[in-house]
Amino acid sequence: IASSASPHVYAFLFPNPNSHLTFPFTDTHTLCYKFDVTAKPRPGQPRCVVKGHVDTELFLSYDCDDDKIQFMSPLGEEVKATDDWKTQIETLKDVGDFLREQLPDTELLPAVGADPPILQVNVTCQRDGAGRTSASWKFAFNGRLCLHVDSENVTLTVVHSGGRRMKEKWESDRDVTQFLKKISMGDCKSWLSRFLVHWKKMLKTTGNPGTQPASPAPRSRSWSSPGSS
């Protein structure tokens, strides 16, 4: 954690105006990274995978255990040419390493049966047309949402009992809470802000962008609600 939380300057730069993306040009935009971390993967199953989304567009799939990258859209192709790409990948790998360390702290481990335990995590940041930003983490275990973290004030909310142990442990560990805040409120927001500067040049728009509806957030996972526990 200590090395992960050291300050860096990260940026996504997308300078190619000829890329043809499917994004609507709107005021509100969201960047989301979705991690799947498996405690005991089967043969051929990745231990850690992260997928990057901008609004509804999947642009990156990264195996953070074997360091394998797939670019899922023209946006992803632009990312690989940036000077800061190596640092970005190192950050995603650091997050994957951190998440693997948390698997033993989930209370749902004894109840997963024959399925390999999977920790599913979303880190999301959003910026609206007025420049206001927000960020959060969601932690689920085998499809059950357990813990929500409001990054701005570092408020941890247990959604299911499986997240109680993580909440109790993290609230007393400033290194962890600052790491979560730094990734979501620092790195993610910086990447999104810098990306939008170049995104406007890549999109062909008509009319006043401010009159168009807000762009949809990345598609949600199929996570169980507390009432289904």
From TrEMBL:
It is found in: Membrane. Pfam families: MHC_I. Its main location: membrane. One of its GO terms (cellular component) is external side of plasma membrane. Residues 28-203 form the MHC class I-like antigen recognition-like domain. Keywords: Disulfide bond, Glycoprotein, Membrane, Signal. It comes from the Eukaryota. Residues 205-229 are annotated as: Disordered. GO terms for biological process: antigen processing and presentation of endogenous peptide antigen via MHC class I via ER pathway, TAP-independent; antigen processing and presentation of endogenous peptide antigen via MHC class Ib; immune response; positive regulation of T cell mediated cytotoxicity. Gene3D superfamilies: MHC class I-like antigen recognition-like (3.30.500.10). Residues 213-229 have a biased composition (Low complexity). InterPro entries: MHC_class-I_related, MHC_I-like_Ag-recog, MHC_I-like_Ag-recog_sf, MHC_I/II-like_Ag-recog. This is MHC class I-like antigen recognition-like domain-containing protein. It comes from Catagonus wagneri (Chacoan peccary).
